[in-house]
Amino acid sequence: MTEPTPYDVDVILASDLRLPGGTTSSVAEEVRAQSEAGISTALVHIVGSVTNYPLPWSQHIRRVVGLPHVRLVTPHSRLRARLLILRHPTVVFSTRSRLENITADQVIVVANHAAIDSGGTQHYDVKATDAKVRELFGVDPIWAPIGPVVRGTMLQQTTEVPFRDEDWVNIFSLPIDDAPRTGFLGTRPVIGRHSRPQPGKWPSTGRDILAAYPDSGDYDVRVLGGAQVAEKLVGYLPENWQVIPFGGEDPVVFLQGIDFWVYMHHPDLKEAFGRAAMEALAAGCVAIMPPYMEELFGDAALYAKPNAVQGIIDEYYGDLEKFLAQSRRAQEFARSFSPEMHLRRLAELGVTPSQPTDEPEAGTTAVQPIAAVGPTLVLVDGDTYEERLSAYATALESNPLLHVAVVATSPPEELNGHEVSYLPSAARLNMDAADWQDYLGHRLSRLMDSLDAETVVYDGVLPPASVIESLTERPVAKVWVQRTPTVDTDQGDLQSARLEAERHFPTLATDPSSIIGGAA
């Protein structure tokens, strides 16, 4: 009798984890659903050409890295899974990562972006990407568009790759009060929109912008996400517009303050499956979108070109029952895209919970070992480092991809014969704080370059500003092993500084042995 194939993890999710928009928010929603169900997940960061400038990891990803049953690994990791999900075809095709140690029984390529836009521009080559996936993993992948618009643009290119019968629609666990609306918010319609501040997210002319978002005292217009594009095209900002910068207000709060969510955008753009739209529907807004989006949202929304928007708003504002009925349809539609739907499609692919779903004790942080991944730099900061180094010295025996650097007043002794980089402290160099910060940042950058580090561990009380700056500019996994101060420190100031630093470190730990597998 053949023994069952051992699996290291149930699901591997791979994408460029720096992307700030829908890709990483969708990944995070799926990871959260899997974690809560006890399905183990490995997150793999692969650098693609979608963005050509340094970015920190998406905040969506940072929020799920420490969840139960979630591992953070690198493209060098040796892993076998039941299912590998690759997000974003452009990332998959353009990455230089070979992923040679990652294997899976099944591979799904989730296409979350149109292959060809309305202007005829091709954003990725389906057949070429399919061939690369076959080469990388030796498995025939299944392509999974996230909606009918994406599927249609892919079919414009080819019918020769295997498609999943059902779209891999995004799931939404939305923290929005979805109580039914009971009336309008004021004595005139409140029109709103929220989106990233990009030219493609707005109509292409000032005339269309003012048709959808009128310059009239008969309407209030609220914009979350900035309006620089609109102001340039219109020539001014209407007095009845309230503009909030991108990130300036929680969308949950913003959407509760509008009656009509109007989303008109550039004619060349084709939305794949907008999270912003789903948030608006879940909040009970009556949504008005371009006609092509009816294939995505059906009767959950209303559809028009910009010049017809005001007529629809006037019609529904003049009939409260009609408005409330449409609002209820929107909310019912949004509820159907629940995490449970994602678990059902995983079950169809043979992925069911294999881990206990008990929550960790309060106050603990889930941290996965980083042994057997490629290259890791550990920066140990402070003269009280001797005990900390013992764990790292042991880890060096089993992990040749690990390198330790020490910031101290005097050079450390060898770690069992292993090379250790010595970074002199400010006191040792007799430097003022600003000059030493520059020195440390430069040395750390040189070390990361020479090692080609994919993970950086900071072991200390509080990361210096130059360390945070060096890491923010690089797409590396970041772990902070937090230490308590050995001298009297203002606890209020320390706590405030720690909270700020934790924004840059998605994974936290308190003990070196908890992050270096087999070190203890």
Give a short overview:
This protein has 520 residues and is of the alpha/beta class.
List keywords for this structure.
18 strands; six-stranded parallel sheet; alpha/beta
What does this structure look like?
With 520 residues, the protein is α/β, with parallel strands linked by helices. 33% of the residues lie in helices and 18% in strands. The strands form three sheets. The protein has a six-stranded parallel beta sheet. A six-stranded parallel beta sheet has the order 9-8-7-10-11-12, sandwiched between helices. β16, α17 and β17 (477-482) form a beta-alpha-beta unit. α16 runs parallel beside α17 (465-472). Mean pLDDT is 84; it is low at 358-368.
Strand content: 15-25%
The number of helical elements comes to 18
* Strand arrangement, major sheet: 3-2-1-4-5-6
Measured as a percent range, the helix fraction is 25-40%
The rough form would be described as globular
E-strand count: 18
Biggest sheet architecture: 6 strands, parallel
The structural class is: alpha/beta
Mean pLDDT metric: 84
* Residue runs with pLDDT of under 50 for 5 or more positions: 358-368
Distance between the termini: 38 Å
Rg? 26 Å
Fold topology:
Elements lengths: L8 E7 L6 H16 L3 E5 L13 H4 L7 E4 L5 E9 L1 H6 L7 E10 L14 H12 L4 E4 L2 H10 L32 E5 L11 H7 L7 E5 L3 H7 L6 E4 L6 H5 L4 E3 L12 H8 L3 E4 L4 H4 L4 E2 L5 H9 L2 H16 L3 H10 L27 E6 L4 H13 L3 E7 L11 E5 L1 H4 L3 H19 L3 E6 L4 H8 L4 E6 L8 H12 L4 E3 L11
Parallel strand pairs: 1-2, 1-4, 2-3, 4-5, 5-6, 7-8, 7-10, 8-9, 10-11, 11-12, 13-14, 13-16, 14-15, 16-17, 17-18
Helix pairs in contact: 1-13, 6-7, 9-12, 16-17
